[in-house]
């Protein structure tokens, strides 16, 4: 089945998202496209996944929970305490049902763009990292270095970004989704758990 038209998705996101989130989305999509070109991933898939990664971000927490319950999407303890984390899960669902995405790799890239997961596909890594390094991001430590390394060694950049994410969450005494820790451990140990 043919994937949805990128122009239609871009127009839909411009309507669905607030202006700041839309700018971030464009940054992620174009960064994902650049990384896809660098590493030989499918360019259109990277653009679609980047464009839709936050398609559920502007929904209320109540709406995200409601969609999960209505469609039997599991909610883990971290998501229960922080329902804003559900935007990835709900986004993957909406990408499929509302925007016509059928490619499991694109859906997984959207699903795993916040926590990552051990043994991600190339596209999943690209979208996860693009969300972290897109040009609108300003506050992450070592961001210029991670941006440079992302185009030289994707896994090394992923490890650095995951390490920063975990440090930030621990330092702020925030809830850490266990999948983020598992993802970091997997890549830090050379792809072994």
Report on this model:
- The protein has about 190 residues and is an all-alpha fold.
- It is about 65% helix and about 0% strand.
- The chain has helices spanning about 5-15, 20-40, 45-50, 60-70, 75-80, 85-95, 105-110, 120-135, 145-150, 155-170, 180-190.
- Helix 3 runs parallel beside helix 7 (about 105-110).
- The protein starts with 5 loop residues before the first helix and ends in a 5-residue tail after the last helix.
- The model has no long low-confidence stretch (mean pLDDT about 95).
In short:
This protein has 193 residues and is mostly helical. It is 65% helix and 0% strand.
N-to-C SSE series?
A: HHHHHHHHHHH
The main pleated sheet reads as:
none
Multimeric state: single chain
Q: Can you give the helix content as a percent range?
A: 55-70%
Q: Tell me the distance between the termini.
A: 36 Å
By DSSP, the count of extended strands is 0
Query: Strand fraction band?
Result: under 5%
Mean pLDDT: 94
Structural category is mainly alpha
């Amino acid at each position: 089945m043919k994937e949805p038209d990128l122009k239609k998705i871009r127009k839909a996101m411009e309507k669905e998202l607030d202006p700041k989130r839309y700018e971030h989305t464009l940054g992620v999509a174009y960064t994902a496209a650049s990384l896809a070109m660098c590493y030989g991933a499918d360019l259109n898939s990277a653009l679609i996944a980047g464009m839709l990664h936050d398609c559920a971000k502007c929904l209320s927490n109540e709406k995200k929970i409601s969609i999960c319950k209505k469609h039997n999407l599991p909610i883990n303890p971290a998501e229960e305490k922080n329902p804003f984390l559900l935007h990835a899960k709900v986004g993957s669902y909406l990408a499929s049902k509302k925007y016509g995405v059928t490619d499991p790799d694109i859906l997984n890239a959207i699903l795993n763009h916040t926590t990552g997961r051990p043994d991600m596909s190339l596209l999943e890594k690209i979208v996860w990292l693009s969300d972290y390094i897109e040009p609108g991001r300003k506050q992450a430590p070592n961001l210029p270095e991670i941006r440079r390394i992302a185009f030289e060694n994707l896994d090394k950049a992923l490890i650095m970004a995951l390490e920063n994410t975990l440090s930030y969450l621990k330092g702020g005494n925030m809830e850490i989704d266990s999948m983020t820790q598992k993802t970091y451990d997997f890549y830090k140990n050379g792809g072994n758990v």
